[in-house]
Write a structure and sequence with these properties.
Blueprint: E1 11-14, E2 27-30, E3 39-46, E4 49-53, E5 57-61, E6 66-72, E7 75-80, E8 83-88, E9 90-95, E10 101-108, E11 114-116, E12 119-124, E13 129-135, H1 137-149, H2 155-171, E14 183-184, H3 200-207, E15 211-214, E16 225-226, H4 236-240, E17 262-268, H5 269-278, E18 301-304, E19 307-310, H6 311-318, E20 325-330, E21 333-339, E22 347-348, H7 349-357, H8 362-369, E23 374-377, E24 385-388
Parallel strand pairs: 2-14, 16-22
Antiparallel strand pairs: 1-24, 2-13, 3-6, 3-10, 4-5, 4-9, 6-7, 7-8, 9-12, 10-11, 12-13, 15-23, 17-21, 18-19, 20-21
Helix pairs in contact: 1-2, 1-3, 2-3, 2-7, 2-8
Length: about 400
Amino acid sequence: MPEKIHYRGSMLLILSVLCGYMSARPVWVSLYNNLQVQTVVVSAYKGELSVSGDGLQEFVISRGQAVHVALHGEKIIVSSTKGVVGAFNKLNITGADAASVVRLRPLQPLAEPRNYEESVYMYADMGRIRMINQIDEKQYLAGVIEAETGSGRTPEFYKATAVIARTYLYGHADRHVSENFHLCDETHCQAYKGKCRHAPIPVAVEATGNIILTDKNLHPISATYHANCGGETESAKNAWQTDMPYLIPVTDPYCTSQPSARWTKSIAIDDWISYLVKNGFVPNPNTVTDFNLKQSSRKPDYKVNDFVLPVKQIRNDWNLRSTFFSISVENGTVVLDGKGYGHGVGFCQEGAMEMGRRGYKYDAIIRFYYKNVLLTPVSEAHISVPGFE
């Protein structure tokens, strides 16, 4: 169980240079982070919940019972079926035992209900109810893996994903340090929708111990991942102008027949020319213009005569699935024939799933996508983990 929380006091930075397990302290994850939650229903999905307001007043929510939490200025008002319980600066909602589960159901704005283990800490924060799940590292990772990859995958794929998610956690534990939590529950960090429901996932997390991916200097790598690379991963240098020796192009035969491998988009030729003109293209009526692009292998730019436009910008402007596309003109229509889904850098999830189905072990899957990396125990890695009090 996590140590007693003293709410929004000062932040303590734990500079764990050769150690620093998150298991020694809970991971702090901001829930429904992209929503300005004003009201939320809190119930006991399993077991009993102990609720303390401002560290003093305590009451119990039994299984099947619920309370209504609403923002009112700088206070949060707690109400039950019997009336107002109280107005507090902060609430700490903790399961009575390891089997207890907290259920949150935002009402304003309306959002899907989710279940959380251990404890949820709430307080008013700049016009919203901030909700922080203070959760054990392994339980957090299991929730991330389920949210990111779903159920029904092979054990070796889940193990590979566990190592990658753990690496991300330790490499980005300071991403929201100025907001007094480690990570958010959105794809800005790692998707996390609460308690994992599928038993093989926690088994995979446990099986990988405390292993993370590091470079030769024992620093956590940037363990990026995406849905499908389309047959060739992208380099970090092309994607983000950052040269990382472990994030280089890899020819991937495992993802090319998977659900997200191909896509198409059609655009009227006049709309396409107008788009190019807005970005600096100058049509020349005396020159035949070739609008075609062939990407049998990934290219960083789209070129029309002397005009150059990064494919990354085209993807963003047209909300495309990837930058890995070819262009042809057919009967007055520009056809984009695309491959893959996502930025394409690092671990290809659908390719890794297929490798798992073909019997590859998790370390071989990892090393296929990340080159020249070390599988390192957290206790031996150079990491800095912020803690909060």
